[in-house]
Amino acid sequence: MSIATQDDLNVPDARYVRVAPVEALPPPVAARGVVGWVRANLFSSPANIFLTLLTAALIIWIVPPVIEFVFTHAVWSGSDREACLPTADRPEVGACWAFVRDRFSYFIYGSYPIPERWRVNIFFAMLAVGIVWMLRLEAPRRDLGALYFFVIVPIVSYILLTGWEAIGLRRVDTSLWGGVLVTIVVSWVGIVFSLPIGILLALGRRSTMPAVKLLSVIFIEFVRGVPLITVLFMASVMLPLFVPDAYSPDKLLRALIGIAMFASAYMAEVVRAGLQAMPKGQYEGAMAVGLGYWQMMYLIILPQALKITIPNIVNTYIGLFKDTTLVVIVGIFDFLHTVEVSRIDPKWAAPTTSATGYVFAAIFYFIFCFSMSRYAKSVEARLGKADRR
Fold this sequence. Notes:
This protein is mostly helical. The protein has helices at residues 6-10, 33-41, 46-72, 97-109, 117-135, 142-162, 180-205, 210-224, 228-238, 251-276, 280-288, 293-308, 310-323, 335-343, 353-388, and strands at 178-179, 333-334. Among the domains are: 27-61, no CATH class; 97-112 and 172-388, Orthogonal Bundle (MetI-like fold).
């Protein structure tokens, strides 16, 4: 009989040693997929379970009646109020979408002359091209896009919408404008002018020059300290006092100036928050390489500050878009006011007409505001990935 040596004892038999590692087992079913997500997010604690059940109860209570009103019991066709009145065969009547179809053109154009509405359509198309060109980060020659959006579109749109007899375009007074046209024009002007003016005001408030800083602070605090309605009244009543009667701006231009002033004051504080969040080393590094003040702001500070404040900038834009409804105070027919006027039309005086108009307005504002929010979120995600590279 042979005796095992020390080497034989220390070397394991290859027949009983696993060379390849064991594959990892998948997580249990209860911790992955839909079941895992539900357990982790909806039923992870007693408080979470209670809130989940409460939310589910609210959804069951609210959503079915809304679906019935908007879709199931809705009236989709008709020529007058008779189509939207309850009958013996149809005791429950939902949304009167026939009313929206009949008044849709008025919602879009207001009282803009029907033969000239092609000009409004061209304006919408030009604006859409400019928005896509500027917002699509992969778009070619975005420098030309900025020239098109900030210079060409405003000039051409003004000539198109107001008219120019010299080239055969009939003049259309702004008192005839209304609906979506006015809402888009007011919000577009406010959005385009509020950011650059707000940046200048924010830089002025942080300036070391006392006069510039004082004027910026007075403007910002005064405008932010009064409601938008007051600003619109001041723009409508006081602006004509500073110019001769022959050159007095019309109501819409006064409202545009008031909206731009109001939005610029709020935007200035948003931009100032981003400037204050910048580390001091960024300023010192820019000055150390010999950059002047405006070069430092344009190349180093403002790009980073604006990236930080993207959520706040978009939030201000969303609020501005919804605040355009207040221009009705100074006698301008925006989109919501056209709905208000249409719902009291005797031709469509039905129990559900008013609710239908407000639902349609809510859908309109939600689509625009939600689109702005989602775009801002995608830009944030893209910039975040760029920073991590």
